[in-house]
Amino acid sequence: MALIRAREAAVAPLVAILADPRRQAEQPMAKRVLVQLGELATGPLLGVLESPDPLLKTQVIEVLGDIRAPAAAASLLGPSLSLAAPAKLRSAAQTALGKIGYRPSSAADAMRTLGMGGAAESKDIDIRAPDIAENGAVVPIDITSNIPGTTSISVFIEKNPFPYTGTFDFTAGAVPFVHIRAKVGESTPVRVVVAAGGKFYTTAKEVKVTIGGCGG
Q1: N or C, where is the chain less crowded by C-beta within 10 Å?
Q2: Which residues lie closer than 8 Å to 37 by C-beta, 6 or more apart?
Q3: Quick one: DSSP state of residue 92?
Q4: Predicted confidence band at 64 (pLDDT cuts at 50, 70, 90)?
């Protein structure tokens, strides 16, 4: 146990090296040691992902990918798709998920990974999308949450190869509305999960994709 505690204690000074731009020469070594610590470093590194420093987060994500830590998948899904994230950070998250070998098999799988598996059905989420989409490459989808205290809206295209489309966060007082233009590969439910008051709520709308405008 003492050895384990000593190894866990080594994580903080190694992360401090990654966070210090004046210590760039030491950073490759710090990353190698963190990878060698393996699962013992995973928990503390996941905590670092809450940092507002995108350069530090990018390096930590690279380490988590090299550790191939399955526990990191839920924390990497959001950054891997977020258009608000810097391109290098987003690319690092996508690469790390590939190394971990995580690819959600369904919307339900992605929801479980993100801790949303127990979302309750709600009629207070409005999804506006075409019943029939003639061009599945660009399907406009408008989402409004009428649930008080909404803090985020997550979108899943159930039959897409990668069903998780992304999560959109809202600050207090912001109107919980999202407009996206999504690729929909085949006829599928579009599922939305809203976070509000520490709970999750969900609803879905079926979108039929035609082939050459002839239906299919």
Answers
A1: N
A2: 7, 10, 11
A3: H
A4: very high
